[in-house]
Amino acid sequence: MGQGCARGRISLFEKKRTKVSQASKSACFWAGHRLAKQAWKPAILPAVRPFQKLRCALGQGCALFRLVLRLMACNPAGIMRFSRIIPLLFLMTVPAIAAPKEIEIPKDDWASHDPIIALTKEAKWTPLREVDVQDGSLEVRIWFVTVTPSHGIRLCRNGDKWSAFYVAAGLEGYQSFQIRELKPQTDWASLWKKVEGLGISTLPDSWTLPYERYARDGVEVDIKDGIAYVVEINDGKHYRTYMYCNPQYLKSPEAKKIIEIIKALGEELLPGKKIT
């Protein structure tokens, strides 16, 4: 009788231990599965960003698959569950590796200068070269870097819908940080047609042009500060940036075009505000 009870207790204990073990394995699998779901997305997305980040993304991808192998060892039955998402991982990985975004940055990376980085962070925007712009969309940022608080305009096109924002850095005793939405005086189609016709997407960086000294009314002048216009463009396939410093004192056709572009944007989006 006592032996039977003992055997019964042992059998019951073994069953409970088996259930606990199975539950632990199941919990291990699903916990790992959640980690995998959280891990594979940031491992793949950086690869669609600048080409220099591809190596880092591949390293993260290797770490992901090592995690998957551990999950399989923890619960072999989970292989069938995981096999359902393998095609999805494949479809996301191949385009990311096969088609990295083209990036065009001058020798001096103007968009990475401190005033622009600080203003981008203060506005809580993602650096434009890291933004995943969808097909058919476009984003343009025009920065005005000056000795007074720097400011900028952000243009976004999603299909045929446009939006724009103005952001200005704060300066103690001068002004506080500001960000606000902008609307054109006429319409977006006319504004974009005008600035696109002036070459906002295609103007070369000023440092690739022949050297030219600053002059006012035909007399050479020495400009120690002034204003620099930095333009960033991302259409999802191609990112580029360029800069013109004090173009109002230059005679080149490109310098005149950037002035006309800035004037057109100012008249339409910031009427009454001097931005050139």
Structure, explained:
- The chain has two domains: 2-98; 102-269, no CATH class.
- The chain is built from seven helices and nine strands.
- The protein starts with a helix and ends in a 7-residue tail after the last helix.
- By secondary structure, the protein is α+β, with helices and mostly antiparallel strands.
- The protein has helices at residues 2-44, 54-74, 78-83, 86-98, 114-122, 188-197, 253-269, and strands at 102-104, 137-146, 151-158, 161-168, 178-182, 215-216, 219-220, 227-234, 238-245.
- α1 (2-44) runs antiparallel to α2 (54-74).
- β8 and β9 form a beta hairpin.
- The protein is 43% helix and 20% strand.
- The strands form two sheets. The chain has a seven-stranded mixed sheet, sandwiched between helices. It has a two-stranded antiparallel ribbon with strand order 6-7.
In short:
With 276 residues, the chain is α+β, with helices and mostly antiparallel strands. The chain is built from 7 helices and 9 strands.
